[in-house]
Every structure is written in C-alpha cells, then in structure tokens.
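SEQUENCE AND FOLD
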Amino acid sequence: MLKSTFHLLAPAAFAALLAGASVASAEELEIPVGEQGKETYIENIRGLKKDEVTARLGEPLGIQGPIGDPAITRWEYQDFYVYFEWDTVLHTVRKPQG
C-alpha cells in the first residue's frame, strides 16, 4: 500500500516543484550610459578572403599563426581580432575592454 501511494504522490510533488520554479522572476539591471563599455563596431566580414579584409580594414597591427590543421590565423586590429581558417574569415572578436 505504501509503494502505490508513493507512485501517486511523486508526480504531484514534481508538478508542485515545477510550478514553484516558474514563479521565479528576473532582476532588471540598469547601467548608466557613462558607465557602459566603449562600443566597437565590427564590420560583417565573415567569409571574406585575406586580401579583401586588408582592402576594407587596412593592414593588421599584428599576425599570429597559422597554427594547426586546419590552419588558423589571427589578425589583430586596434579594437578586435579577425580569425581566419586558411584564407577565409571565420569570426571577428572584440578585444576585452578595461
């Protein structure tokens, strides 16, 4: 009898737990404009070739790589990095601010 009661109560307890979890609320965080980080615009250059990136952004400040297979190279610009796989842009990543 105890075993069958447990099987009946377990789903009810689980449902009550889920109902309680859905009541949680998110806290709104406001950051004054003067305290926000500097916004850096990065052109959408994904898929471009190295010579096209140089034509749009100029010469990089530094180049690291290629490393690995596939060959990954990182070009450094003032506010961001450009990552290439072989000769094609994979991603652009903002440098950490601060």
